[in-house]
TrEMBL record:
Compositional bias ranges of the Basic and acidic residues kind: 9-19
Species: Frigoriglobus tundricola
Domain Insertion element IS402-like per the UniProt entry, residue ranges: 18-90
Record-given protein name: Insertion element IS402-like domain-containing protein
Region (Disordered): 1-20
Length: 98
């Protein structure tokens, strides 16, 4: 691939999203929607993949690639899951260091 003069191409790395087996481990750990609340419209697997991408790439929330849900929504889930311990359980299930 030829880059314009003075520019080095930086292709986006291939996504390393959860496998089906990993998702099977993680999905039961995520909180269920509260009864009577608004129906969930966001794919939680995509949210988990987005958070993992942020942590792997060490990029800012606003730098989240478009293939993932909106960075603001992802950050809201992340903050909630860190507060209630969900994210620690997800990382442990995936074998990530605590």
């Amino acid at each position: 691939m030829t880059a314009p003069s003075g520019h080095t191409p930086h292709p986006e790395p291939e996504p390393k999203d959860l496998t089906d087996a990993e998702w099977t481990l993680v999905s039961p750990l995520l909180p269920v929607p509260k009864p009577g609340g608004r129906p969930r419209t966001i794919d939680l697997r995509a949210v988990v993949n987005a958070i993992l991408h942020i942590q792997r790439a060490a990029c800012p929330w606003r730098g989240l690639p478009r293939r993932y849900p909106n960075h603001s929504s992802v950050r809201t889930y992340y903050d909630r899951w860190v507060r209630d311990g969900t994210w620690d359980r997800v990382r442990a299930a995936l074998g990530a260091p605590q």
